[in-house]
TrEMBL record:
InterPro entries: Gal_mutarotase_sf_dom, GH38_beta-1, GH38_C, Glyco_hydro/deAcase_b/a-brl, Glyco_hydro_38_C, Glyco_hydro_38_cen, Glyco_hydro_38_cen_sf, Glyco_hydro_38_N. One of its GO terms (molecular function) is alpha-mannosidase activity. It comes from Paenibacillus antibioticophila. Belongs to the glycosyl hydrolase 38 family. This is Glycosyl hydrolase.
């Protein structure tokens, strides 16, 4: 008889490396699972294949303990019975950078190819929403599909199905990104465990399949039905062939097969010919649900992890890779092996249960160590690279500007020319212990070093305002490549100054010299009294309660009541925020603050604002009872405690001489539990939408949620910044690792940035206490407020400032010597107001220099590129960075390249050399 439908049953397990158990306890269970899988596959028979969760790290984790099984594993992968890749890990989408996602795909492919071929499956089974650029990233990876479980109705709490109002007519859909890229989307409408634990016994099997066939057909667009046989840490169903045989016996009109995802896709594509699927566009953030099960507040769980991640990503992709590339152009070998190790170590913190901060405390303690390890490797690469570059820079000219010059290099590893205040430590004098002096004599000589009569000059001899702090006698050491360690004593100083117009992806040299010249502008100030900071672009007036008025002097627009702190209770969990019913937020509005001048220099002024604020100590006793009874957090009735504890908050506002934004540093000592702290920035701009930095995209989002949204809170994800504008003027709030914000529906379009969220339980399917998620103790947060005018061009300029805020300055000391690199240098120059620079690195396979940008706008633009280095040819490629056909280069060694709306564009430079 003709079969009316086909049930594709896919054996898999969704493997969270760490979650409700620490990593090693899950690890032990993984070893047992893969052992059982190999034994089953070795037997042959009807158990045909297994999908290894789309992440190659499982292979690493297994072989770390079972290296003797490598050949068995490789055989089954090459035979197509174990499907691996394409990712290294299954990462969270909104809390990891675009480049981290690219490295994830690149390393996943590289590792998979050691065993066979990566499965070209865009696999996002449990990712907490998906960014809008996912279709383009998949297409650039040679993947035409995306399997996902969250972000589009009809899934809800505990992954139950909705009853109507679907965003897609079927579980199969077309997903279109902002650039127009399209992929076939497969929504796990009945979750990625909808074919789990298939019964073998006849009566149970009949009941099971009656329900499961109906559930799948409710959403499927064809008779090709997908059943995922597995779940979180699910042991393999070894008797699945017997269960399939029973199903075939009971349902002769249905074909049951032990399938795999590639075969399912082929069958689905054939069956879909001529059918019209719904098109879903842009971000998948569960916009059309009630807002209670979106898991969005993982963006503010354990904020310290997000801050470490932002720093770790920036140091690797925006500092170490560009500097190592510059050093490679000068002849140093690019350390691919170290970068792979550092990226893998960092990405082990990127799964959704890890970076989202929604695991037990032991998991997140281990994450802190991983962040430190990755950063240590990156900083070692940076130190080695900048030494090579410094040795090649011609600093001989500084001898003409004063005696005993001590050169220093300022590196700008952002994609745009940059000015700003930097700090560098210099050895004013150094004496190696090998030179034979006693320790007492060595110390005396260093202490007697004369630091007087010195000024800082640029490469043209112009005096630069600076502040010098004598750090006194210090110990140090060198680690030469060809000798034993070399200890020394030194007299160290710390110099702070404004580096001006340092070229993009380049450097500028300065020197601290002994000179008769005196520092210019010594009496200039950016302060009026102790409450007003002002430069040519901005004016900041601080009120008695510590809030401030920001005037954009270019447009005259005034922003009032900025910088107020808000505090509310939180009776939710690591996944979701829940404010107690009827509670009114506490704020620092009207709370007197102690305001003092912290810094008054020609290049920067800073004001310190101190608050002593009493807030409730915790939730009341009812919360503990509701947690123990597993009361779903929207239904909780707990309130805040009547007991108050102090919260000390120190805010430092800093304005640089020609800065385009006001920098904010907040330090607070948290001694309270079950609460949230935010900083508020009312914009008073008329706008129904706002824009926010996401992965390779400036996403546009509605200020007002969809009609289905019931949650009073409408918090959302951000990466570098969020912006509210009216088409002419706007306010951008940039951050370092503060991934949660909300545009309040308060009549003022206030931007609220979450600084801290303190909760005491994991949440989800049971009670898992997480006392360390209360985040008690000292915390520091950093933001920058950037007003703009001039419409779209002004907004793009503000975005550039926000992106540069993410990236630290790098500096190093060198000596006086000749070199082939100019003291004001960059290996390339590019132009486009609409493009954001994303990456500069070397490709291991081709040896080529790779550069990446993305179009921030929804209209076409053009990239102009000119190289200051020799090359054989330039080509356009994808995020997998495979060599391509040469582009036409003009007579001066540059090119002009059209770039589409929201396009991610990668160029390869073949044969690059200085």
């Amino acid at each position: 008889m003709t079969k009316k439908r086909r049930a594709h049953i896919i054996s898999h397990t969704h493997w969270d490396r760490e979650w409700y158990l620490p990593y090693e306890k899950h690890h032990v269970r993984l070893i047992a699972l893969v052992d059982a899988l190999l034994d089953k596959l070795d037997q042959g028979g009807e158990f045909k294949s297994f999908y290894l969760d789309g992440q190659t790290i499982i292979l690493e984790d297994y072989l770390q303990v079972r290296p003797e099984n490598k050949e068995r594993l490789e055989k089954h992968i090459r035979d197509g019975r174990i499907l691996i890749g394409p990712w290294y890990i299954l990462q969270d989408a909104f809390l990891t950078s675009g480049e981290a996602n690219v490295r994830n795909m690149q390393i996943g492919h590289q590792d998979a190819k050691r065993y066979g071929e990566p499965a070209k499956i865009g696999y996002f089974p449990d990712t907490f929403g998906l960014v809008g650029q996912t279709p383009q990233l998949m297409q650039q990876s040679g993947i035409g599909n995306a399997f996902f479980g969250r972000g589009v109705k009809p899934t809800g709490f505990n992954n139950t199905v909705a009853d109507g109002g679907y965003e897609s007519s079927f579980s199969e859909l077309i997903w279109e990104g902002p650039d127009g890229s399209k992929v076939l989307g497969i929504l796990f409408a009945n979750w990625y465990s909808n074919g789990n634990e298939v019964p073998v016994e006849e009566e149970a099997a009949r009941a099971y399949w009656d329900r499961k066939l109906a559930d799948a057909e409710k959403y499927a667009s064809t008779g090709e039905l997908l059943y995922m046989n597995g779940c979180d840490h699910q042991p393999i169903q070894l008797d699945l062939p017997e269960a399939i045989a029973m199903a075939e016996k009971l349902y002769p009109d249905t074909e049951f097969i032990h399938s795999n995802l590639p075969d399912y896709l082929k069958a689905l594509e054939q069956a879909s010919e001529g059918k019209t699927l719904s098109t879903v566009q842009g971000e998948l953030r569960s916009q059309r649900t009630d807002g209670w099960g979106t898991l969005v507040n993982t963006a503010s769980a354990r904020v310290y992890l997000k801050q470490m991640n932002q720093e770790g990503q920036a140091v690797l992709e925006k500092v170490a890779e560009p500097l190592a590339s510059m050093a490679h152009l000068l002849g140093k070998k690019y350390p691919h092996h170290l970068f792979t190790y550092a990226w893998k170590t960092l990405m082990q913190n990127h799964p959704h249960d890890s970076i989202c901060g929604c695991s037990v405390d032991e998991v997140h303690r281990e994450m802190v160590t991983r962040f430190a390890k990755s950063k240590d490797v990156a900083e070692t690469i940076i130190d080695d690279s900048k030494t090579v570059i410094a040795d090649a820079v011609d600093t001989s000219g500084f001898a003409a500007y004063g005696e005993d010059p001590l050169p220093v290099l300022a590196f700008n590893t952002t994609g745009w020319s940059r000015s700003g205040v930097i700090t560098v430590e210099l050895d004013a004098a150094r004496l190696y212990l090998r030179e034979g002096f006693t320790l007492e004599e060595t110390a005396r000589r260093m202490k007697e070093t004369d630091l007087s009569g010195r000024v800082l000059v640029d490469e043209q001899g112009n005096v630069v305002d600076c502040t010098v702090e004598d750090l006194g006698l210090l110990f140090g050491y060198d680690l030469p490549d060809d000798r034993f360690r070399q200890p020394y004593m030194c007299r160290k100083v710390r110099i702070t100054f404004r580096a001006a117009d340092v070229p993009a992806l380049g450097l500028r040299a300065y020197a601290w010299v002994r000179s008769a010249k005196s520092s210019a502008s010594a009496a200039s100030t950016l302060l009026t009294g102790n409450r007003t900071l002002e430069n040519a672009s901005l004016k900041v007036e601080i009120s008695e309660d510590g809030s401030f008025v920001l005037t954009d002097k270019i447009s005259g627009r005034v922003y009032r009541d900025l910088g107020v702190y808000e505090n509310t209770g939180d009776i939710g969990n690591e996944y979701m925020y829940r404010q107690p019913e009827g509670e009114s937020p506490l704020t620092t509005k009207g709370l007197p603050a102690d305001i003092t001048v912290l810094d008054d220099k020609p290049y920067r002024a800073s004001v310190k604002i101190a608050h002593q604020w009493l807030i409730p100590a915790s939730a009341d006793e009812r919360l503990d009872q509701e947690q123990r009874e597993l009361v779903y957090y929207p239904n909780r009735k707990a309130q805040r405690s009547k007991t108050l504890v102090p919260m000390e908050i120190v805010t430092i506002l800093s304005l640089e001489a020609d800065g385009k934004g006001l920098q904010i540093e907040t330090r607070l000592n948290n001694q309270a539990k079950d609460h949230r702290v935010r900083m508020l920035f009312p914009t008073d701009l008329q706008a129904s939408q706002h824009r926010v930095d996401s992965m390779f995209e400036i996403a546009e989002r509605d200020n007002k949620p969809a009609p289905e949204w019931e949650n009073p809170s409408n918090t959302q994800h951000q990466q570098a910044f969020v912006e509210v504008g009216n088409g002419k003027e706007g306010l951008v709030v940039a951050n370092l690792g503060l991934n949660e914000y909300e545009v309040l529906r308060d009549g003022r379009n206030t931007i609220a940035v979450t600084l801290l969220r303190a909760v005491g339980e994991l949440g989800d399917w049971g009670l898992f206490p997480t006392p360390e998620a209360q985040c008690l103790g000292e915390h520091t947060f950093q933001m920058e407020v950037i007003p703009y005018s001039g419409g779209e061009r002004g907004a793009l300029s503000a975005y550039t400032e926000a992106y540069q805020f993410q990236i630290p300055w790098t500096a190093c000391q060198t000596d006086v010597h000749e070199g082939k690199v100019a003291p004001n240098y960059s290996p390339l120059h590019w132009e486009s107001a609409e493009l954001a620079f994303s990456s500069m690195k070397m490709n291991e396979e081709t040896g080529d220099l790779l550069l990446r940008w993305y179009n921030m706008c929804r209209q076409d633009t053009e990239l102009s590129l000119k190289l200051e280095i020799s090359s054989e040819h330039i080509y356009k490629t994808t995020i997998l960075e495979e060599a391509g056909k040469p582009l036409t280069v003009n007579a001066i060694g540059g090119l002009s390249l059209p770039v589409g709306s929201c396009e991610i564009v990668t160029l390869g430079i073949n044969g690059a050399a200085k």
